[in-house]
């Protein structure tokens, strides 16, 4: 009955380190290690045929890809050591909550919008793409008044067109096919062409 | 001609109507951009770059220089009024500036910040005017190995930017250097890391990378955090400004100006470390050091002077060696290259008019900044009422146009968006972006100097150590690296010893 091992009340209670935590801590340096090891194979599209006297074109990037692999390895060792030290501590480190509320769904929507803009820009041209982008971005940012949305997007697009295509003479994309025809008509309409 | 005559000629050019207008517009843009959280003067400079295409090289430099001077100060306006630093270097302004605003002393806080910034900037501009030419004469002795060593010093100084996480900073730097190798190599003309994409043969432009990492990622954060940028307490701005306020902080301003001027010359140091170090030094020196953080004017004046004092001195390595010490000077380097101007010691011989016009403009800009600062601070409350969504949409579009304008290439827009997403991810996980940017900028330069040095000196790599100037610079780089890493190494050693002794900390 009393033969069991008695634990002292003040004995260090090891905080278990979960696999999820280990993976999350090691994923990034692990990825960099893989990058440093794999990327040298993809340095050139074709096999190198230069007989360089001294260092070749692969030397400089090769050194830094090796550096990435070595630093990643050191990082992994440092992370493992930190996890080991964490497990040894009496209490786990308190998790500090982020002070600001971060809306990841909004961030994801913003990223999708950016990608869509990049995809649309060469196809539909700057006037249409910019108008749609300002409209959608402002809507995403919480502006719901349709008049404000229309005014901001149309006047904003016009200002940008005048400043960059009219004054700075930048050849911003006009789009392709029917969109190109529309852009040309529009640019003539606003007296930029 | 001596320095005074050259500077006089520079002032003559800087006072020309076109030059004065350029400086004033640049200053206003810089102060406004610096004051708007999420924009920052570096983004403003990147966005302004396409506008300089149609300008003469000197005018382009005056424009960007004025944005730089105004922008470094501008960040403190939002820090003091709404406790949101417009730029990272303005963070110390929140510590003692915002408590002054909370006490209803917003006018005094802004007045002290403007004056300290102007004095710091002016000191630095004078350092630039009188120290750059002797430095350039000395730099004429530089050959490829010395340029390589100086570039390595710039790369090493990255460790100091985030000295608490040297491995992560080195990783970011190495990634930047590898990104800088994309495209046709400078010696053999062989395409590297193009993955069969023809557009990648022309390489990845560092301006595009910068716009993506700084501007695009910041705007995604702005919309996701839904930050309210409106000032809440500016209405209490009724405390009177007295001459004694300025007299009381003269020591703090002098110390801050000195620290900033020295730190600015070191590539990679920049305004943020300058401001933070000046705050720390002032806290030790001041009689009210223990009260810092409660609205002490010396705690506001010293970092303000220091951060603006880095502006002029940061241009010393840029103009004399062609080495940008910060993201802002990197954009100025880009502008110079776009206009066919090669910075370096020969620039002082070939085009002294341009060089001294820039110096005179920097002095002038710091004086005009007082008026620009007061004007922008007055209207800041109104500007901040613009909904963040509208602000963000235009920042993104201006960034994309800026990226497109570098080479009139849609591929650069994709690169910009890609690095925007990468930058956002890096910020979320706390991975430093500054070393990556410096790697993309300095990496190709370092490679070119390294390879041409070896080609010129019969593939003898000892040339970097045996030539006196090159060896000294590399020695300095080693000392700087050890000095920066020492606190981290000591802390790690202690924690390991404690852990092995069974006393985990």
Provide an overview of this structure.
The complex is a heterodimer of chains A (193) and B (505). Chain A has 193 residues and is an all-alpha fold. Chain A folds into 2 domains: 19-88; 104-189, no CATH class. Chain A is 62% helix and 0% strand. Chain A contains 6 helices and no strands. Chain A has helices at 19-38, 59-88, 104-124, 126-140, 146-167, 178-189. In chain A, helix 1 packs antiparallel against helix 2 (59-88), helix 3 packs antiparallel against helix 4 (126-140) and helix 4 packs antiparallel against helix 5. In chain B, helix 3 (40-48) runs antiparallel to helix 4. Chain B has a two-stranded antiparallel sheet with strand order 1-2. Chain B has one domain (3-500). Chain B is mainly α. The radius of gyration of chain B is 22 Å and the shape is globular. The longest helix of chain B is centred in the first third of the chain and has 34 residues, at 106-139. Chains A and B meet through helix 2, helix 3, helix 4 and helix 5 of A and helix 9, strand 2, helix 10, helix 19 and helix 20 of B.
What is this entry, summarized?
The complex is a heterodimer of chains A (193) and B (505). Chain A is mainly α and 193 residues long. Chain A is built from 6 helices and no strands.
Tally of discrete structural domains of chain B:
1
How far do the termini of chain A sit from each other?
A: 97 Å
What percentage of residues of chain B falls in helices of 4 or more residues? over 70%
Strand percentage of chain A = under 5%
Count of discrete alpha- or pi-helical segments spanning 4 or more residues of chain B: 23
- Taken in chain order, the helices and strands of chain B follow as HHHHHHHHHEEHHHHHHHHHHHHHH
Q: Which spans of chain A have pLDDT < 50 for at least 5 consecutive residues? A: 1-11, 92-98
What is the arithmetic mean of pLDDT of chain A?
84
Please outline the major beta sheet of chain B: 2 strands, antiparallel
Strand content of chain B: under 5%
- Alpha-carbon Rg of chain A, integer: 29 Å
Which runs of chain B of at least 5 residues are low in confidence (pLDDT < 50)? 233-237
Structural class of chain B: mainly alpha
Q: Which word captures the global form of chain B?
A: globular
Domains counted in the coordinates of chain A: how many? 2
Indicate the structural class of chain A.
mainly alpha
């Amino acid at each position: 009955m009393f033969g069991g091992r008695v634990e002292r009340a003040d004995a260090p209670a090891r905080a278990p380190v979960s696999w999820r935590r280990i993976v999350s801590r090691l994923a990034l340096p692990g990825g960099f290690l893989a990058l440093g090891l794999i990327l040298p194979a993809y340095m050139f599209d074709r096999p190198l045929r230069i007989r360089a006297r001294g260092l070749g074109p692969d030397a400089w990037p090769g050194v830094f890809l090796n550096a990435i692999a070595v630093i990643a390895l050191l990082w992994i060792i440092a992370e493992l050591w930190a996890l080991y030290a964490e497990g040894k501590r009496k209490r786990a480190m308190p998790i500090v909550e982020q002070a600001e509320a971060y809306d990841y769904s909004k961030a994801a929507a913003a990223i999708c919008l950016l990608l869509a803009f990049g995809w649309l820009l060469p196809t539909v041209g700057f006037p249409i793409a910019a108008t749609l982008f300002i409209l959608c971005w402002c809507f995403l940012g919480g502006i719901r008044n349709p008049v404000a949305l229309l005014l901001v997007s149309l006047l904003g697009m016009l200002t940008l067109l005048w400043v960059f295509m009219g004054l700075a003479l930048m050849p911003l994309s006009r789009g392709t096919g029917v969109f190109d025809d529309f852009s040309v008509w529009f640019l003539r309409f606003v007296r930029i062409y | 001609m001596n320095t005074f005559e050259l500077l006089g000629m520079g002032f003559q050019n800087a006072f020309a109507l076109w030059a004065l207008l350029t400086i004033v517009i640049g200053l206003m843009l810089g102060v406004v951009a610096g004051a708007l959280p999420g924009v920052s003067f570096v983004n403003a400079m990147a966005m302004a770059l396409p506008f300089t295409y149609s300008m003469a090289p000197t005018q382009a430099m005056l424009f960007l220089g004025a944005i730089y001077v105004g922008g470094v100060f501008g960040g403190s306006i939002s820090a003091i009024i709404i406790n949101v630093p417009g730029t990272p270097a303005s963070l110390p302004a929140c510590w003692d500036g915002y408590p002054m605003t909370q006490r209803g002393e917003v006018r005094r806080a802004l007045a002290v910040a403007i004056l300290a910034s102007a004095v710091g900037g002016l000191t630095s501009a004078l350092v630039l005017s009188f120290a750059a030419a002797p430095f350039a004469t000395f730099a004429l002795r530089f050959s490829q190995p010395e340029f390589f060593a100086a570039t390595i010093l710039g790369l090493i100084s990255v460790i100091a930017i985030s000295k608490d996480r040297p491995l992560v900073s080195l990783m970011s730097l190495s990634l930047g250097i590898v990104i800088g190798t994309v495209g046709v190599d400078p010696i053999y003309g062989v395409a590297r890391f193009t993955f069969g994409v023809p557009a990648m043969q022309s390489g990845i432009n560092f301006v595009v990378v910068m716009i993506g990492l700084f501007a695009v990622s910041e705007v995604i954060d702005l919309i996701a955090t839904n930050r309210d940028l409106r000032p809440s307490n500016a209405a209490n701005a009724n405390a009177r400004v007295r001459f004694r306020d300025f007299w009381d902080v003269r020591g703090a301003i002098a110390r801050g100006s000195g620290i900033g001027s020295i730190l600015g010359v070191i590539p990679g140091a920049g305004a943020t470390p300058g401001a933070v170090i000046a705050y720390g030094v002032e806290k030790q020196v001041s009689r009210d050091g223990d009260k810092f953080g409660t609205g002490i004017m010396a705690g506001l004046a010293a970092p303000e002077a220091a951060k603006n004092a880095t502006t002029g001195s940061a241009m010393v390595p840029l103009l004399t060696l062609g080495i940008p010490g910060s993201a802002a000077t990197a954009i100025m380097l880009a502008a110079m290259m776009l206009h066919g101007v090669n910075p370096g010691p020969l620039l002082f011989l070939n085009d002294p008019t341009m060089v001294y016009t820039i110096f005179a403009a920097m002095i002038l800009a710091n004086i005009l900044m007082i008026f620009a600062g007061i004007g922008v601070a007055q209207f800041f409350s109104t500007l901040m009422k613009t909904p963040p969504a509208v602000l963000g949409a235009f920042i993104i579009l201006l960034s994309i146009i800026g990226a497109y304008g570098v080479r009139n290439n849609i591929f650069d827009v994709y690169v910009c968006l890609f690095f925007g997403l990468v930058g956002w991810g890096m910020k979320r996980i706390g991975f430093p972006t500054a070393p990556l940017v410096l790697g993309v900028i300095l990496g190709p330069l370092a490679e070119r100097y390294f390879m041409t040095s070896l080609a010129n000196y019969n593939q003898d790599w000892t040339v970097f150590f045996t030539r006196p100037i090159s060896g000294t610079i590399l020695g300095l780089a080693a000392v700087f690296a050890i000095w920066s890493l020492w606190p981290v190494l000591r802390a790690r050693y202690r924690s390991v010893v404690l852990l092995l002794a069974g006393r985990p900390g």
